[in-house]
Amino acid sequence: MVCDDASREFTAAFGGDPDGIWCAPGRVNLLGEHVDYAGGLCLPMAIPQVTVAAVRRRTDGRLRLHSTGFDVVDVELGERVEGWGAYVAGVIWALDPPDFHGADIAIASEVPVGAGLSSSAALEASVALALANLCGLPADDTGRNLLARACVRAENDYVGAPTGGMDQQIALRGRAGHALLLDCADGHVEHIPVDTAAAGLTVLVVDTGTGHRLVDGQYGSRRAAVEEAARLLGEPLREVESVSALDDPMLQRRARHVVTEIGRVRVAADALRSGRVRDLGPLLDASHRSLRDDFEVSCAELDSAVDAATAAGALGARMVGGGFGGSVIALCENGDVPRIETSVTAAAAARGFPSPVFLHATPSDGARRC
């Protein structure tokens, strides 16, 4: 178990035992991609795969971070940290927890890095909940909303990745058996049951092996376009019915994706409230077309996986995450999963793409103490 891995890693790196061990999940977003920073509606769910932080407080003002396969961090508390450790140091900076004078932190993870499953938010959330528990910060639902917002500040202002807030919210506020209908304007949430088992369905995750980076400028340019479109239209895009008033064709396409995607989330939420999980299939297909054609954040590897999955019988499929690589989700009849996996793998091989890795996503709990 990955929690045991983190404990062993902590002892090997620092000696002794941690004060505690916390974990937070990755996520898949059923619908609502690239609308969180527009104050839109998202429908993510936490997945079983988690990132784990084993933490022990220090009293000497030092921060020591260890994770297998990554550079060791050993700095004075408050000293600027780059690389993977910035996600941890950024959370500490954003939370500024009371009576905190340093820590030893060992990280272990089963959330694939760069797969569009929000490994960064899982890391941030596990550390944020650890600091909250160790330093007496609120960790009820209201407190978790505040922790998530601090994690967003860490990623935006410390790391320099202009993400929205969906990933951190689901990592901290997810609930087993449910998707999280998140209003990104005010942080309001509704937990909506997602009973794929009763429907005989699987949410299949396809990690295409094509990593992506949110700090390479492409994500930021999309966010800037959305903000400019809202400025020109004079109101938030979630309140817009038509984008035809935009003269710039590119801005019109970007805004059209946001407006239609928020609409798809509303339809999906209504379907799930009624137990109609299968109704998500066509919505996934429409979302992928919008992300590919209007928002232009897909790529050949993602399109190949989507096309192969639907050709083999998936009820619907789309890219998930920031795009430019990462993963695809496909809604599948349980009995069709082996055929769909074979089809996606063969399509990737035929085009010389990396061999995909498959996960089955079941809605899981958010951050917690191990």
From TrEMBL:
PROSITE patterns reported for this sequence: GHMP_KINASES_ATP
Pfam families: GalKase_gal_bdg (PF10509), GHMP_kinases_C (PF08544), GHMP_kinases_N (PF00288)
SUPFAM superfamilies found in the cross-reference section: GHMP Kinase, C-terminal domain, Ribosomal protein S5 domain 2-like
GO molecular function annotations of the record: galactokinase activity
Domain Galactokinase N-terminal: 9-57
Annotated ranges, domain GHMP kinase C-terminal: 269-346
Top-rank EC class of the record's enzyme: transferase
Keywords annotated in UniProt: ATP-binding, Carbohydrate metabolism, Galactose metabolism, Kinase, Nucleotide-binding, Transferase
Domain GHMP kinase N-terminal: 87-174
Keyword Transferase: yes
EC number: 2.7.1.6
Superkingdom of source: Bacteria
Family: Belongs to the GHMP kinase family. GalK subfamily.
Name the UniProt record assigns to this protein: Galactokinase
Organism from which the protein derives: Rhodococcus artemisiae
Organism classification: Bacteria, Bacillati, Actinomycetota, Actinomycetes, Mycobacteriales
